[in-house]
Every structure is written in C-alpha cells, then in structure tokens.
Amino acid sequence: MSRHIADQPRTRGNARLTAFLRQARAALPHPATLQLQSRPKTRDEAVKPAHYLRIERGRQA
User: Fold this and answer.
1) Interatomic CA distance for residues 13 and 11, integer angstroms
2) How confident is the model at residue 12 (pLDDT cuts 50, 70, 90)?
3) How far apart are CA 29 and CA 26, in angstroms?
4) What DSSP state is assigned to residue 29?
5) Which pTM was predicted?
6) What CA–CA distances, in Å, run from 27 to 30, 36, 50?
7) Distance, CA of 44 to CA of 19 (rounded, Å)
8) Which is it for the CA torsion 15, 17, 20, 21, positive or negative?
9) DSSP per-residue string spanning 1-61
10) Which residue, among 42, 19, 41, 38, has the nearest Cα to 30 in the 3D structure?
11) Residue among 55, 38, 39, 57 at smallest CA distance from 47
12) Residues of the chain above pLDDT 90, percent
C-alpha cells in the first residue's frame, strides 16, 4: 500500500530558518554604516578660527 499524498514529513530543513534570518539581518543597519556613525565628529580646532575670520572679512566660500 502506498502513502497518501498528505503523509509527508513536516520538517523542511533549515530553509525556513535561513529565510527568517536573512530577513532579520536585512532589517539591521549594515556594519559599514554603523562604523561611519561611530566616527568622531570633532573637527580640526585650527580650522575654526580661520573660518570665523573669513566670515568676519565678508568672504564667501
């Protein structure tokens, strides 16, 4: 006697888990963007007075 068409094993392997993990990782920020966001935001302190003087003299960039 042969099996019925619905008598199939319920396990699908890791395909479903792999799909969920791919979607979860795609929702996260890329490591490169996290690295860019974590860079220091300080500028060279010697440049600021030069910019202020340029603005005071009326010169535009």
Assistant:
1) 6
2) low
3) 8
4) P
5) 0.35
6) 9, 18, 43
7) 46
8) negative
9) -PPPTT---S--TTHHHHHHHHHHHHHSPPHHHHHHHTS-----TTHHHHHHHHHHHT---
10) 38
11) 55
12) 10
- How many Cα atoms occupy the beta-carbon half-sphere of 4 within 13 Å? 2
Say how many residues make up the chain: 61
Token pair recorded at residue 39: 């860079």
Two tokens, residue 33 = 């963007």
- Per the listing, tokens 């003087």 go with 53
pLDDT confidence of residue 44: 74
More confident residue, 2 or 41: 2
